């Protein structure tokens, strides 16, 4: 089935500009969305999704009330929710394999919605900006096209992407919204900031840095964050980056050097240091089993025994 906008099928488009010209209410919705105040999400209720990860749950979940993700420049956030069951998924897509990732997101929600025949699938997109290489624009079009190919009827509700998420500061383009959250109970989607990005932040970043594909990080039936197992080969050459200037790291390790958040370089260095300290991932996953984390009584994620 095609993607639906106000209950009408989306025709083929060749640019995001064309999409917004044909559907001016999406432009207005995007302006409203990006003008909302940032919500600083309490880590005690948060499930944080990193780049090239997704997570899905339902309102019955006692461990998670907000799924969130941040630090996106050219990346896009995809939120899909079933209005009947309340099942919701948030993914942080970077364009590495969009056509295989979107079906995973749809399946994550529909598999949690079997008990509910009423309701519909609603889609919220945010992220990207008017970057010079048009990486954001290409990703926007690919995500929309991939949803067009799904057999389910999916209703596009929020579309704060690329030019509608763009601001010019001192002559440089950058995103307005760098992070979003979704309230699992209400389905509300909102711009967000995050002080806590765990559990296992360095491990998860290392997985993505070394080419790991889109991963489902959450078992909602057990309230467990599950990481890996994943693998990488020893590469001592990456230590080279630790001695480089910040501008060099930005230039070569970012898709958008002028738009990255202030902590980007330190995040890259921390990830590289983690890989140098763990040249083989085998020791991180004894017996080839994933690392599991559950919500403790204090409200933080702790390693499950």
TrEMBL record:
One Pfam family named in its UniProt record: N_Asn_amidohyd
Lineage top rank: taxon: Eukaryota
Biased composition (Basic and acidic residues): 294-305
Coiled-coil residue windows: none
Any one GO BP annotation for this protein: ubiquitin-dependent protein catabolic process
GO cellular component: nucleus
Position of the signal peptide: none
Database matches in InterPro entries: NTAN1
Entry's Gene Ontology molecular function annotations: protein-N-terminal asparagine amidohydrolase activity
Chain spans, region Disordered: 286-305
Protein name: Protein N-terminal asparagine amidohydrolase
